[in-house]
């Protein structure tokens, strides 16, 4: 079986899918498949592309792929259940409590990926911060739903402060994590999640779908960025 590791390529002037396929030892159709919505004939500088880079047969690199898959799965589940909880809360569905209990498992799932590399104390701290993130997400949803603008503003500020603390903690544990970049990516997730909340409340359903798609794609990019930092810290020295 052939394996590949997904990389994020930021489009530069002169880039084409053909040149990128040659550089990363993949194919143009594969790049197109992994980047829906990107026009291959009109690449915009700064666009972030997901590219499956080359053939990987080395067992160590298979471990890296497994790590990437685990990280992606954990963050994808977080986004999925967060969206379901939003819809359940806003439409007063009877499954709301069950979905909330499932959403509360996502901090454990994300922290478990890091547990293979860091101390129990550090992983416990990460889990606590992620639990706070989930709690604040629910509080912001409720405040916006109920029209409590002052409360929503206060919770949103705490929400972003929590994201900054997560970025700070991770960058302190891993010199290959850039605090500013991680903080920006985590806060972008919050901005996209808020767009989901507000567009659904305002019956802007097409915009809600767009925001949901963008948030899901962004969480994959975040997972890839976190994976890359772990690979640099723990695997590259073994090559």
Secondary-structure blueprint:
Layout: E1 3-10, H1 17-24, H2 28-34, E2 48-56, H3 59-90, H4 96-103, H5 106-114, H6 120-145, H7 149-173, H8 179-201, H9 205-234
Antiparallel strand pairs: 1-2
Helix pairs in contact: 3-4, 3-5, 3-6, 3-8, 3-9, 5-6, 6-7, 6-8, 7-8, 8-9
Would you write up a description of this structure?
- By secondary structure, this protein is mostly helical.
- Helices cover 70% and strands 7% of the residues.
- The chain has 9 helices and 2 strands, in the order βααβααααααα.
- It has helices spanning 17-24, 28-34, 59-90, 96-103, 106-114, 120-145, 149-173, 179-201, 205-234; strands at residues 3-10, 48-56.
- The chain has a two-stranded antiparallel ribbon with strand order 1-2.
- Helix 3 runs parallel beside helix 6 (120-145), helix 3 (59-90) runs parallel beside helix 8 and helix 7 (149-173) runs antiparallel to helix 8.
- The longest helix has 32 residues, at 59-90.
- The two termini are 21 Å apart.
- The relative contact order is 0.11.
């Amino acid at each position: 079986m052939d394996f590949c590791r997904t990389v994020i390529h930021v489009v530069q002037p002169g880039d084409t899918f053909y040149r990128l396929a040659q550089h990363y030892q993949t194919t143009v159709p594969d790049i197109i498949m992994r980047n829906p919505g990107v026009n291959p004939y009109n690449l915009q500088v700064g666009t972030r592309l997901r590219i499956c880079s080359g053939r990987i047969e080395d067992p160590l690199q298979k471990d890296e792929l497994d790590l990437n898959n685990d990280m992606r799965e954990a963050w994808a589940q977080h986004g999925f259940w967060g969206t379901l909880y939003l819809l359940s809360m806003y439409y007063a569905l009877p499954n709301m409590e069950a979905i909330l209990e499932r959403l509360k498992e996502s901090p454990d799932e994300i922290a478990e990926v890091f547990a293979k590399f860091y101390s129990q104390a550090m992983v416990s701290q990460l889990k606590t911060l992620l639990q706070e993130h989930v709690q604040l997400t629910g509080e912001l949803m409720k405040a916006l739903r109920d029209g409590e603008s002052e409360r929503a503003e206060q919770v949103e500020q705490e929400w972003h402060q929590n994201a900054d603390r997560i970025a700070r903690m991770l960058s302190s544990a891993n010199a290959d994590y850039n605090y500013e970049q991680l903080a920006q990516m985590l806060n972008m997730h919050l901005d996209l999640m808020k767009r989901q909340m507000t567009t659904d409340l305002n019956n802007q359903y097409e915009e809600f779908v767009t925001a949901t798609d963008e948030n899901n794609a962004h969480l994959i990019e975040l997972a890839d960025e976190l994976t890359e930092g772990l690979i640099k810290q723990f695997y590259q020295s073994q090559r």
